[in-house]
Q: What sequence folds into this?
């Protein structure tokens, strides 16, 4: 099996992830719900992971990081917790439905939404931001990297614009956490939304949100917090303000192990290896007659993703045949990014996405290219297929 669906969830996980989760299941209780040893063990685990994340992301205060289920929950929390009827928000056609669908809900409630267009390479011209400012513009929300093309957004440029105009910048880091070295103390990022199961090498079902000091978000849910039991209102202090209910301690333990693994290997080494594998695949795939590749490959800084189509063959069929006949695992379809596909002209076809990890090998990439070339030759010999 050649697993090239790393943008969906990373595989394989470092061995320490499963071990940490099993240890948590065996040895920790419920944080803040008792003074006994197992409850305290859970509290220590959660605090140490929060501290590790703050160090990893360069955040000034670990209490400004709250745990969620994934980036989707984090983005819902940020958007629904910041924007009000009458506000104006700017976003882009690059976005995942985790951004778009909450915005559509808010739009129906009276929030004005501007969506910056992407060109045929999937590039957004952020110099046009100033043309879309309104007196009531409150925030900009954008992905740091497209989950379809791998194109990377210059969040420092966008952050500088937001700081100049007193706007809140919300960044979707689903594809870049664990690939990009954040320095949240110095960067103009007000809210960072991330998931644990991709580049952070943690399990599914755990993610988080970073909120800049002095910025308050309405909670998405309220309830038990382990503190201020007799108050009629949910605690306003971070991180409890955004963590109602029992948190996912085994998931947090797995995420902590993923972070430790990343630190031990080093982001620079991981990024170099992934860039080499991605470029090797791209150089081979672009020379296969009948293959169309999407995205901007002029930039050396891009996430390890190559999205393509085989002329005349539905993307779902290509992905299915790669899996069934060559054991090459990819993802096809719309990738939950409908406006991105509209910009690329692939709204009817979707695209086959190959995504890589430093744990993949060059031999796997070579075999994937051979499988793709064989599949293309076979279908070209048969003529066009719908």
A:
């Amino acid at each position: 099996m050649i697993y090239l669906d790393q943008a969906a969830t990373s595989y394989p996980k470092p061995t320490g992830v499963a071990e940490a989760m099993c240890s948590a299941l065996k040895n920790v209780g419920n944080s803040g719900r008792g003074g006994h040893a197992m409850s305290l063990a859970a509290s220590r685990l959660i605090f140490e992971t929060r501290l590790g994340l703050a160090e990893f992301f360069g955040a000034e205060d670990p209490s400004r990081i709250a745990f969620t289920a994934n980036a989707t929950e984090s983005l819902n929390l940020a958007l629904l917790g910041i924007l009000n009827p009458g506000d104006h928000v700017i976003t882009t056609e690059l976005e995942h439905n985790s951004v778009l669908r909450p915005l559509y809900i808010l739009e129906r409630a009276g929030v004005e939404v501007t969506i910056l267009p992407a060109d045929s390479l999937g590039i957004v011209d952020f110099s046009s931001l100033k043309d879309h400012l309104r007196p009531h513009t409150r925030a900009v929300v954008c992905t740091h990297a497209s989950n379809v093309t791998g194109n990377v957004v210059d969040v420092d440029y966008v952050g500088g614009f937001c700081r100049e105009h007193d706007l809140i910048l919300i960044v979707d880091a689903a594809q870049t956490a664990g690939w990009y070295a954040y320095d949240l103390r110095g960067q103009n990022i007000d809210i960072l939304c991330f998931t644990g199961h991709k580049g952070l090498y943690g399990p599914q079902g755990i993610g988080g949100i970073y909120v800049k000091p002095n910025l308050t978000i309405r909670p998405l849910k309220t309830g038990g917090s382990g503190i201020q039991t007799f108050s009629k209102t949910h605690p306003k202090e971070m991180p409890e303000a955004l963590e109602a209910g029992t948190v996912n301690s085994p998931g947090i333990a797995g995420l902590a192990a993923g972070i430790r693994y990343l630190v031990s290997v080093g982001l620079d080494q991981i990024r170099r290896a992934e860039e080499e594998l991605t470029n090797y695949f791209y150089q081979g795939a672009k020379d296969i007659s009948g293959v169309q590749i999407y995205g901007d490959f002029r930039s050396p800084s891009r996430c390890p993703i190559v999205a393509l189509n085989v002329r005349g063959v539905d993307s779902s069929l290509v992905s299915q045949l790669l899996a069934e006949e060559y054991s090459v695992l990819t993802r096809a379809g719309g990738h939950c990014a409908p406006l991105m596909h509209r910009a690329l002209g692939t709204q009817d076809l979707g695209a086959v996405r190959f995504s890589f990890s430093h744990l993949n090998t060059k031999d796997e990439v070579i075999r994937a290219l051979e499988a793709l070339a064989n599949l293309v030759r076979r279908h070209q010999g048969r003529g066009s297929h719908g």
